[in-house]
Amino acid sequence: MSLFGTATTFGAGGTGVFGATTTDSHNPMKDVEVTSPPDDSISCLAFSPPTMAGNFLIGGSWANDVRCWEVQDNGQTVPKAQQMHTGPVLDVCWSDDGSKVFTASCDKTAKMWDLNSNQAMQIAQHDGPIKSIHWIKAPNYSCIMTGSWDKTLKFWDTRSPNPMLSLTMTERCYCADVVYPMAVLATAERGLIVYQLENQPSEFRRIDSPLKHQHRCVAIFKDKQNKPTGFALGSIEGRVAIHYINPPNPAKDNFTFKCHRSNGTNTATPQDIYAVNAISFHPVHGTLATVGSDGRFSFWDKDARTKLKTSEQLDQPITACCFNSNGNIFAYASSYDWSKGHEYYNPQKKNYIFLRNAAEELKPRNKKW
Amino acid sequence: MAEGGDAEWELSKENIQPLKRGRAAAALQQALCQRQDGPGSAVQQQKQAFESELRIYNGEDPLDVWDRYVKWTEQTFPQGGKESNLATLLERAVTLFTEEEKYHNDARYVDLWIKFAEICPEPLEIYRYMQAQRIGGSQASFYIAWSAEYERQGNSRKADNIYQEGFNNFAEPRDKLLQFHKALQARVSRQVMTNMGDEDSDQESNEPERISLVDLKHRGKKKAIVPVNRVRAVLGHNSRGLPSQAAPAQGGSKNSRFMIFDENNGPPAETSAPKLETWAAPPPVRAKENEQKPEKWCDVKMPQRSRFGHKIVAPPVTKPTFQPFVEESDEPPTMTPCKINSAVNTVLSARKPCQEETPLKRLQDHRRLQQPQEMEGGKMQEKRMYCNELLFSGATEFCFEELRAERYRQKMAEETEGRAQTSQSSSEH
């Protein structure tokens, strides 16, 4: 498109012209676009568990909806179904058999969406918006864990209107992750609580935050035996901490690294620091992906402590990311994350979910596979 | 219900911090009754509402929200304490508008500064800082508060000077300043009349003195140590305790058969009556302590004396016939044998060289950060590309989603209101 074309039609905001001229920045990595993405910022993404045949992607958004797409082997996406909340959706998760999806919302409720019948019913209630939701599958029980801004963590049997367990925290839940038998919760005021889930959920340990700034995202990683052994914690100030629960040598094993910052080597101009919006671990290689407010995603090898790849900059922040069950697909969502407040919000801006082939790029370099 | 409420307030009287402007009875009643409620109570909701209003407000007068929030906090948390977050709140409010010239002589802003100074460990420094920044220069309340602080520390002359400065700067309202100045003068003259010894107050004003049977001076909740420094100037204008220092001795001799021991008067009594004698010879060696040469004391025996003065010969030490059992390893350790791997020992670490961060220092740092050209150090500069001021406004932090959710909530509320209005108007037609 010519420069004149954009100048004259800019005010109209037509998707055709605008989209065409900005193709390079909205999808600089030339990844596959998911069809009919949500109309507002995408808050969370989740791929179906390995027990399910095929790949299904769930995405929740600030437009109050939860959408389900089927991702076919050729990369094509087919929208399958949609459910609504009465408030923005903040988190989603799958049951282990893939038959149900659980959604947490600002409307203070959590819902269970049965994909077979396409029916959704409320299964949890909090006094504040629910920020995190996770499915816990233990040998002797299974339940839903919800963390809310009302400073409680609740565990729900999906059949009862009352929680089977409610734990109070000192602060609001900002992010959480669960890999049985471990759950980790990061709260406001830089709180970090680790829960153990065997027999019955209970608080295991409170950890002094390895980071100096507000917690934003957390993801548990596993050891060689496929047991959870630590977590990666991301903050609003462009930094991720790798923290082991019981390391042989804490001073050496635990570390933090900088990410999502601009011109790291150029000292003449100030370094721009962006928030780390999400962290996801590769299910096979154990490497991790971080996405940030700067509109980039990066792949890291925490064991070699090296960066594997950083993407080009998108024209919007990346708000969510996830891997599919076998680690071949990396999904990331491009939309506004509110990191600059209300003034920088443009409701007309289109949101995207992209799919990227992750089979090669996330392999640790030094190992021969 | 009212009676029950009265009892409640009677029971927890000691938990109520005095407030200069007084407390609303209703608010007090409510605050004390709600102690039992957990989170999610009306107080929490109200607080949340203020927190979000701070962030969402985009009108002409952002100070208004802060002002209301602070006043509400004072009324709602009568016992003060950490949960009220008043200190954080005041500090944030005061810091936020240091660049806003239009507020510098706003009565509300100056009031916030004074409240902030009052909870600081060194209020005078804050007042001096305010003066240097030209905050409150034309507000009578500023000079009154500053002067009161000097007076509290026993420096009446400085206190008076502050009023003079207030007059020189044409502080408003002038009547109020005059009135307080008169009151100060009256107090000072009364002090002089009651033989308070104003002349020594200047030199001694900074030295803490111990006074028995007087109220302890309130030094703000920042210094929550057991107050051992009982400042003498407490007597100044709040003479509910003993009227003056000199009084106990006189009173004791007059109307009671026993002396009340006053440690403050002890030492001077000795020196007050020196015997003037000429030194004919070097003074006789009196029994001195510490005369002995340092030596091992473990086998020295103190020569014991009987009541009548003659020596008692200590019975010879008989060695026990048995051998006391001594464990092989039981040697007196020269140092603690505990060897902790310093890498693992994260529980106890040496305290970092103490860099006491006073509120004033934070303020100055904040100012420095405002002017980036001074930041040109060797250190790499960083620039936050997110709305830090929104996240950390008020007394609690917010995350991006909370900010956004507040916006959403507000929008929804407006929409439902709008819908209600339109439906109302349509039904009227």
**Into which percentage range does the β-strand content of chain B fall?**
under 5%
Total count of strands of chain B: 1
Widest sheet: strand ordering of chain A: 1-29-28-27
> How many beta-strand elements of chain A?
29
Percent range of helical residues of chain B: 40-55%
Instruction: Describe the global form of chain B.
Output: extended
Query: Could you tell me the mean pLDDT of chain A?
Result: 89
Tell me which CATH architecture of the domain at 102-207 in chain B applies here: Alpha Horseshoe
* CATH architecture annotation name of the largest domain in chain A: 7 Propeller
Low-confidence stretches of chain A: 1-22
CATH names the topology of the largest domain in chain A as Methylamine Dehydrogenase, Chain H
Please outline the major beta sheet of chain B: none
Figure out the total of helices of chain B. 16
Mean pLDDT of chain B, to the nearest integer, reads 71
Q: Multimeric state of these chains?
A: heterodimer
Query: In whole angstroms, how far apart are the ends of chain B?
Result: 46 Å
Helical residue percent band of chain A: under 10%
Q: Find the CATH superfamily of the largest domain in chain A.
A: YVTN repeat-like/Quinoprotein amine dehydrogenase
Q: If interface size is counted as residues with C-beta under 8 Å from the partner's C-beta, which chains form the largest one?
A: A-B, 41 and 28 residues
**Structural class computed from helices and strand pairing of chain A:** mainly beta
Features:
heterodimer, A: 369 residues, mainly beta, Methylamine Dehydrogenase, Chain H, 29 strands, B: 429 residues, mainly alpha, extended, disordered N terminus
Structure description:
The complex is a heterodimer of chains A (369) and B (429). Chain A is mainly beta and 369 residues long. Chain A folds into two domains: 30 residues, no CATH class; 327 residues, Methylamine Dehydrogenase, Chain H (7 Propeller), CATH 2.130.10. Helices cover 6% and strands 46% of the residues of chain A. In chain A, strands 1-29-28-27 form a four-stranded antiparallel β-sheet, with no helix packed on it. A four-stranded antiparallel β-sheet of chain A has the order 2-3-4-5, with no helix packed on it. In chain A, strand 19 and strand 20 form a beta hairpin. Chain B has 429 residues and is an all-alpha fold. The radius of gyration of chain B is 33 Å and the shape is extended. Strand 22 of chain A pairs parallel with strand 1 of chain B, so a sheet runs across the interface.
